[in-house]
Specification:
about 425 residues; 6-stranded parallel sheet
């Protein structure tokens, strides 16, 4: 059976915060599938992960804003009106626009028209990463081109999309995969065909995150000259709960020696630094900004505790199973987090990590203090988490599942 070229639409590419997507793209290529990447935005990160340089697929960038490239958009729309699928696509767009009157909705139809007009040669399948805006472009482009589409849904895209939109997209595509049990169950409740929704954990390329065999120092917070290192990796945005984590750190006993290291960008970084100053802990924090994957790996290995206070944002946004928790666990680094979404699907409190309820900085502080004071507990939990990751979160499993889903479609296609 000959594989068909898969056109993959992404919100932005490459992105430092989406290594799980890059790893999947590389895995599909290594499994023998040919890809062509479509990005709705140009990259904004100044660095790249090594995995991005290993991906061979070409990238086509759509107009991020329609008024930035008006002639290109007009050519796409003119070409779209001459397509047999234009009436169906425009009808779907008008129906969506009536329920979501926004420039964003108009932008997605314009981007779909450009994609259809500049369709990669040989592209025979369309796959969207994220079920919100990339899937909107995919749905319209599928109607214009009469090429079927599928989707990978993750976290924010599921929980910030209205149910009517999720229901429509689940009905119009061939299948959807998602990466946590909570997301899987939610999508199944909205899908007419329950069997079209699949659970597929991202997993890690464990060759990149090879076992950490060194012994960590037995720091216990008693020596100010050798503080316990608490690491967190994540964008400074509401759902990551960094305000809760800073509050928890400020509640730790004054005589406890610790240092907090944050890796990542994010819109709230400036305000969080100001908050740390107000709490009187700014001199115990290192804000390192975004870093490449190999540098993050070195930080996992140099740290004693990983902390992430996941929460549900005001708009419903939340994490699924943050990839950074899987990465940290692969390095025997004990994780302190919350019971949000997919986190308990990897971490079990007192067995493979320490979990507390969300929105509870006092509980976070108590869990951190427990981990700081007890290096033997950190080792026991970190070792158990590493075994769980290497047993159940190898990304080859998800790549095989995706490849089989695509190949099943091609075997049954006329």
């Amino acid at each position: 059976m000959q594989s068909r070229k898969i056109v993959v639409i992404l919100k932005g590419y490459p992105r430092l915060s989406e290594t799980f997507i890059a790893q999947e793209l590389l895995g599909l290529e290594q499994a023998g599938l040919e890809l062509s990447l479509i990005s709705m935005r140009h990259p904004t990160d100044k660095k790249r992960h090594p995995v991005h340089d290993e991906i061979r697929a070409p990238v086509l960038y759509l107009p991020e804003y329609l008024h930035h490239e008006p002639l290109r958009v007009l050519r796409g729309l003119w070409a779209a009106t001459r397509r047999a699928g234009f009436r169906k696509a425009f009808t779907a767009f008008r129906r969506d626009l009536a329920r979501d009157v926004s420039r964003n909705r108009v932008r997605r139809f314009g981007q779909a028209a450009v994609l259809a007009a500049e369709w990669p040669e040989g592209g025979a399948w369309l796959h969207a990463h994220f079920i919100h805006t990339p899937a909107s472009v995919a749905a319209y482009a599928s109607l214009l081109t009469d090429i079927p589409w599928t989707c990978s849904a993750h976290a924010k895209d599921i929980w910030t999309s209205p149910d009517w939109e999720l229901t429509d997209k689940l009905a119009s595509n061939r299948w959807t995969v998602t990466c946590t049990e909570t997301g899987f169950q939610h999508l199944r409740t909205l899908a007419t065909n329950k069997t079209s929704v699949h659970l597929s954990y991202h997993g890690l390329d464990l060759a990149r995150f090879s076992p950490f065999d060194a012994e960590r120092p037995l720091r216990d917070g008693s020596d100010p000259a050798d503080p316990v290192i608490i690491l967190s990796v994540g964008r400074a945005v509401e759902k990551k709960g960094y305000d809760l984590l800073l509050t928890a750190l400020a509640r730790l006993p004054a005589n406890l020696a610790w240092r907090f290291v944050h890796i990542g960008g994010g819109t709230l970084a400036k305000s969080l630094k100001g908050m740390a100053t107000d709490l009187g802990i700014a001199d115990r924090i290192d804000w390192l900004g975004a870093m490449a994957q190999e540098d993050v790996l070195a930080r996992y290995r140099a740290s004693d505790i990983f902390a992430l206070a996941c929460r549900i944002g005001a708009d419903g946004d939340r994490d699924g199973l943050p990839n950074v928790i899987v990465e940290a666990s692969s390095q025997k680094l004990v994780c302190v987090s919350t019971t949000i979404s997919g986190v308990p699907e990897l971490l079990s409190n007192g067995e493979t990590g320490l979990l507390v309820p969300p929105e509870d900085p006092q509980a976070i502080a108590e869990a951190l203090e427990r981990a700081i004071r007890d290096p033997a507990l950190r080792k026991t939990l970190g070792d158990a988490a590493e075994r769980r990751v290497r047993r159940d979160f190898d990304y080859h499993t998800s790549i095989t599942q995706l490849r089989n889903l695509f190949e099943t479609e091609w075997r049954t296609a006329p």
